[in-house]
Amino acid sequence: MTAPAAPLALRRYGASDAATLLDTLTDVWAEAHAGHDDVAQAGFTPETLRRQITGHARRDEFTLIVAYAAGQAVGIGYGFRCTPDYWFGDLRPAITAQARDTDSLAGICELAVRTGWHGQGVGTSIHAALVAALRTQWVSLLAMPGDSPARRLYDRLGYEYAGPYRVGDGPVLDLLLLRAGSATVA
């Protein structure tokens, strides 16, 4: 299903807005991941998203971008500046030296677009706004392994695979890394 052509408006929010927008963020995320059994099997649910956003909103420079069309939220993305130790954890020694030793790193935690809006540049626009707002040399994110539309987007944006990433007994995810100056427009 293709969404009607409507102008896209991106709005930037900070940590103080996260609690107010939590229901909207969860709704967009849930629709974007509906039918993705791998996401649910990995333990990612709307409730875990709510806890994740609430915890991350305490971080400095928490930045949230919401894409609106005709007044409806059609996509979301958020991230924050962080240290390589925080973001890469035990994988840090395997990361390229420039990213491993940088003091200019951002982690993008979520990027989700309602299904009717896939393929219309919403994810690319949100990503570009996040990268511009966070103003770092390096950007990293975690993705489900495999050939998904999200992973194809990250590849088009210029992300490179940095290694498998697991926190505790959680699922194995792909750690992706982008030198912000090398970001491309898909």
TrEMBL record:
Keywords: Acyltransferase, Transferase
N-acetyltransferase domain location: 8-179
UniProt EC number: 2.3.-.-
Entry annotated with the keyword Acyltransferase: yes
Stored InterPro entries: Acyl_CoA_acyltransferase (IPR016181), GNAT_dom (IPR000182)
Entry's Gene Ontology molecular function annotations: acyltransferase activity
Lineage top rank: taxon: Bacteria
Protein known as: GNAT family N-acetyltransferase
Annotated source species: Kitasatospora misakiensis
